[in-house]
Amino acid sequence: MGLFNVTHPAFFLLTGIPGLESSHSWLSGPLCVMYAVALGGNTVILQAVRVEPSLHEPMYYFLSMLSFSDVAISMATLPTVLRTFCLNARNITFDACLIQMFLIHFFSMMESGILLAMSFDRYVAICDPLRYATVLTTEVIAAMGLGAAARSFITLLPLPFLIKRLPICRSNVLSHSYCLHPDMMRLACADISINSIYGLFVLVSTFGMDLFFIFLSYVLILRSVMATASREERLKALNTCVSHILAVLAFYVPMIGVSTVHRFGKHVPCYIHVLMSNVYLFVPPVLNPLIYSAKTKEIRRAIFRVFHHIKI
Question: What domain of life is recorded for the organism (predicted)?
């Protein structure tokens, strides 16, 4: 059995924002508002795309996938975040923590894959518009969505097992109000190089490659748009990309910040780690429905019709 038995704590203790424990009840209000906006806004978009025939197009199918992943991420964090901030109930069982960790990372990676699919959609629409309908068929769109989910599942499946093999005996106090792989592995009193290397491999091979191909697609889009003679046509083509660009920035900028701080910011105050992780998980689901509602008139019209039908 080796020098020691593999031990796990029966439960972990979650943490809100260090140093602001007395303000947790005040912070629960804004958190509830953010969850309401994230869940409500994305659910309305899902319903609008479902019932509005004019939105039965590739761009909006991808948007509904993005909204689904945002709802899923919010639902994965909601139980522990609200328990921690509203009820000061900080404990979570070891197995429940593993499940939550897997779900958060799974839907986060799935969202990255969907943002890549959306950039491909914009590339085909602008660079090869005559083949748009034949390239992005319903079957291809469904395959891209399932591919994003399958990639996330296969890539992240080892994570719970990599954590389970570690003896966790330094502490059982996590530094967030939800469970993340980097946070859990730091509590192990054993060599965590395999976890660390695999985590970096996952980050580079999925999120890193997605971001590279999104960037490449916009280089090609920009080159194609600049070749267009009319200034009005250029602006019209670029305007169809604005919502997606803002969604990409809302997702990747906090994620790059969190990854950088986790790996290199050993002397950064603890509350900075916590705040950046919260921004990464809470801001995209809140901003995405607002961005698409504000920038896409077809979505605004569909949402108005949905509420009009409800009112009737």
Answer: Eukaryota
**Which of 308, 258, 252, 287 minimizes the C-alpha distance to 67?**
287
SS3 (DSSP) at 13? strand
Report d(CA 246, CA 288) in Å as an integer: 8
In a domain, 22, yes or no: yes
What count of Cα atoms within 13 Å lies in the side-chain half-sphere of residue 20? 16
DSSP code string of 157-207: THHHHHHHTS-B-S-SB-SSSS--HHHHHTTBSS--HHHHHHHHHHIIIII
Question: Can you give the pLDDT at residue 311?
Answer: 61
Q: Convert the pLDDT of each residue in 223-268 to its tens digit.
A: 988 887 678 888 888 888 899 999 999 999 988 887 777 666 667 7
CB-based contacts of 282, cutoff 8 Å, min separation 6: 31, 34, 38, 74, 77
The answer to the question of residue 3 being in a domain is: no
Spatial CA neighbour of 250 closest among 213, 202, 287: 287
CATH of the domain at 292: 1.20.1070.10
Residue 163 belongs to domain spanning: 11-311
Residue 204 belongs to a domain: yes
**Banded model confidence at residue 132, pLDDT cuts 50, 70, 90:** very high
* Residue 9 DSSP class: -
- DSSP output for 204-230: IIIIIHHHHHHHHHHHHHHHHHHT-S-
- From CA 41, how far away is CA 296, in angstroms rounded? 14
When divided into structural domains, the chain yields a total of 1
- Alpha carbon 301 to its chain centroid, in Å, reads 26
Query: What is the number of H-type helices and E-type strands within the chain?
Result: 13, 2
Q: Is the pTM of this model over 0.85?
A: yes
CA distance 191 to 195: 9
Answer whether residue 4 shows pLDDT above 50. Answer: no
Confidence band, pLDDT 50/70/90 cuts, at residue 6: low
| Bigger pLDDT: 39 vs 255 | 39
User: Under a CB-based contact definition with an 8 Å cutoff, are residues 189 and 175 in contact?
Assistant: no
